[in-house]
């Protein structure tokens, strides 16, 4: 799907096709169901192209999409479409992250289930997470279809390209929809692997020293490229240990999941870098 990797100067018709393709992928892969979720792209410095309210993202036409400004005012609409109440959450990202040109709010099943169960995202079980997403925080709970959606992502989105919205899905961002979709797919893949590992009897964590190697490798790569995307901004150039996240602590409602192998989880390592978590089944 070539339209997903659109360059920054892409014309509006191409961006509309990119959103349609992204919606079809998300719907086919059960990352969005019914009329849930929203997809948007930055058209220019003052305009955003976004999906409307009440429409299945897998069955849209190009004319269904809206153009809004950064205040949420509708600049162009066809077919009597109206903006989603989650539009302010997308606009908040674009205001805080000038490097972001695409935002996907989805409802991935396994990743969302983590927040329903009160569990942190398991960012210490697969190496590719440390090399890409890094720490994935969980937001505070927000009343759906309210201004709270934008408020809960505000303290997190500056330093993260993927966020779990408590009991409300996920938010992933990127330089284009291909990147934002890759983050979303990886988020759901890791959550599903974690689920199946628990079903099989236990979850083995990557040792903290190995996580540090992966984190440093990621930071050095981005520093050499001269760009630090959201996930990489959790650290510093050139040397940094495990990236520091902004997740809500367990005393605010997120239950941590202890290591099955006696090795500290990534969250444990971020807390003190030394503490061993107890042996127990996840």
What number is the mean pLDDT? 83
| Individual helix count | 8
Count of DSSP E strands? 7
The biggest beta sheet is recorded as:
7 strands, antiparallel
Quick overview of this protein structure:
It is built from 8 helices and 7 strands, in the order H-E-E-E-E-H-E-H-H-H-E-E-H-H-H. It has 282 residues and is an alpha+beta fold.
In terms of topology, how is this protein built?
Elements: H1 12-28, E1 38-42, E2 47-50, E3 66-69, E4 74-76, H2 87-96, E5 102-106, H3 109-116, H4 127-131, H5 148-157, E6 162-164, E7 170-174, H6 177-200, H7 208-225, H8 266-272
Antiparallel strand pairs: 1-2, 1-5, 2-3, 3-4, 5-7, 6-7
Helix pairs in contact: 2-5, 3-6
Please give a handful of descriptors for the protein shown.
alpha+beta, 282 residues, L-fuculose-1-phosphate Aldolase, single chain, 2 domains
Descriptive notes:
With 282 residues, the protein is an alpha+beta fold. The protein has two domains: 2-200, L-fuculose-1-phosphate Aldolase (3-Layer(aba) Sandwich); 208-272, no CATH class. The protein is 35% helix and 10% strand. It has eight helices and seven strands, in the order H-E-E-E-E-H-E-H-H-H-E-E-H-H-H. It has helices spanning 12-28, 87-96, 109-116, 127-131, 148-157, 177-200, 208-225, 266-272, and strands spanning 38-42, 47-50, 66-69, 74-76, 102-106, 162-164, 170-174. It has a seven-stranded antiparallel β-sheet, sandwiched between helices.
